[in-house]
Input
Amino acid sequence: MRLADQGSFGPTEALVTSIRAQGATAWISAQMALKTSSYTSGQGGAVHQYTGAGNFCDGKGDNCWRDWSSTQPLVWDFYRNAVSQPDQLRQRVAFALQQIVVINNLEVDGTYGFRLYYNNLLDNAFGNYRQVLKKVALSPVMGDFLNNANNDKAAPNENFARELLQLFAVGTCELNTDGSLKGGACSANYSNDVVRSYAYALTGWTYPSGGATSYGCWPAGMNCRYYGGDMIPVASFHDTAARTLMSGVTVAAGTAAPAALEAVLDSLMAHPSMAPFIGKQLIQHLVGSNPSPAYVARVASAFTTGKYGAFGTGQKGDLAATVAAVLLDAEARGDTVTRSAGKLREPAHMFAGVLRALNGKTDGDALAWWWGESLRQHVFRPPSVFNYYPPDYPVPGTTLVGPTFGIHSANAALERMNYLTYLLDWGGSTPDANVPNALGTSVDTSSFLSDAADAAKLVDRLSMLALGQALPSGPRTEVIKAVSWWTASTDATNWQKNRVKTAAYLVFASPNYQVLR
Output
């Protein structure tokens, strides 16, 4: 049951049965072999090829910006896949990666480019982290977002170089293998001079060919904005001076942009902080916010060796080995749950998780501008390159960190319950004719009616599905009491349906569900 929460967007009764039948290792292996999810919705690159008068969307209807420039079509795909596609682990890992190598739709536009970026993360979820970083470095969307597209050697912008080091690769402080600070205090992994060296080494990349504007491309010699592929090198804009990077790697004088990028990747992959820095974040996204140092060290070892049991290729940065180490570790699989274990379920997981558990369906439309905004996790629109929340956000009044608490509040706690009210009492959302292949968002609780006559049996069934165990005795008694209030005398027609709705609301609203343990 716990593995269903860690390796999917939420348990279903069928999924729990499948995991029990296969065993954890076999299920993970089978999941890594699956690839059924992708991003397909939205329009293409013509938005960056327009040379006519006025605005591209003039005369194209009210949904033009949504379909050509926004990430809303990808939200449809994201939640459809999360709720119904079988390659759950691939989706969860890709979602974790997109919260590490962050871009957003607040600062750059182009649906087709975001579609390519996020499909690359799905494709490489069990590949190698070096390839993830290479695709990120060559992404024209990232190049636009962090100012590395058309970056000129004469005055290099340091934005991408800085975030590559700080957020995507090694972090600001030197780390031991177990994720602790080397020497017990923060010693900087790099100086500003090092950042500048990386910025120079990464100059000389422009958009892939295909873009056009009515006023031409600028600067002269570079391509117009276009997101339909990897960026391409332009020698005249690339710095060719010798540069000293981290990990003892240097870029020799006269090195062309593609070879300089490989040197950058060599230096990052060789850095001792990368394995614990990335490994710990994967643990936090999949399993728990406060892994023990020993757990981080074991995951870092899998990242470094590229092997974990039968998983992995033996190449450093192997994500299949790393993810297997995260999920199969005794700290993830053990039945003894410590006080520091677990994590607050993030909103996107809750949205999809409740729908999956209650046989729901969604086209994702209501989970973006409505519920995503309400709970501050509008997928594909994190407020900055620092994601929705920091990985070291402190839980007030404790010595623990709780990343998701960075977007939690008293109001958010109520909004989580309102989401359940929306599904169970309001009936969710009906299909919107403006959404392609609209499904709306709703649950189907009919399969639980067979247990409605026995309130205790119903509550325990939903508890086992949502929590993997019965509610603690005190809350269980109160929930059963609330469910039992509905009888033929209180509602002759719908008492059984109301029992199911009441039980589902109270179980999924409980702290036991909201906090993954």
About this structure: Residues 128-272 form one domain. The radius of gyration is 24 Å. The longest strand covers residues 205-206. The chain has 23 helices and eight strands.
